[in-house]
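Lay summary. Proteins are chains of building blocks that fold into shapes, and those shapes determine what they do. In this project we predict the shape from the chain. Here is one chain we studied, written as its sequence of building blocks.
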Amino acid sequence: MRRIGRIGQSPKRMRAPGWRSGSRGRLVSVRTSRRCLTSSFARALTRKCLSKRRSAMRKVMLDTNVIVDYLMGREPGCSDAANMIAMHVACEHAVHVSALSLKDAYFLVSMQLKRMERLATGDLSEGMAKAANEVAWSCVRQLIDNTIVLPTGRAESLQAFVLRSAHADFEDDLVVATALGNGIDLLVTNDAELVKHAPIACLTSSDAVVLLAAEHAGI
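And here is the predicted shape, written in a compact code that computers can read:
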């Protein structure tokens, strides 16, 4: 499984059609990042995981906000998300996303890139808008190629109504219902309210890193 590349993080950058370099990180990378592990601790933990090759696999699901933090290099959250994703992959945990997250990631990445361009230049040309959309398409394709995409249908939609009494956010409840319906062991989200209310093991990306550290405390 290849690591999912972050926007603007690859040492060898590919320029999207019409996208030009400049301030505010406007040169956008769509290549796979080779620098997911951003701390010596993360590298050590990954080596430990690779050496053990545990037979038991944890099914991990990423919420949309974790995905977008990672892809956009958005702090706080990006570094923890990068370390957490790389560790789970190295430990052979199955990383899942909801199909709905693909839609949301496309929209949010495209919107943020267009916003950055408007702030930097005061305008958004047709070419730059197309380039932002192209990068968003590339991000979605990387997610499809590097994670297990889970469908959300009628059963999950109805389950969201059951979850409403604990957490009255339909979008979040759809994610939780998808996780429950697919036997997910751990949902990773940077939504503090969802962490409090979710009827499933649910951690922030930073706490997920701590969990992995606790599991491999012999490092």
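What the prediction tells us: Residues 8-55 have pLDDT under 50 and may be disordered.
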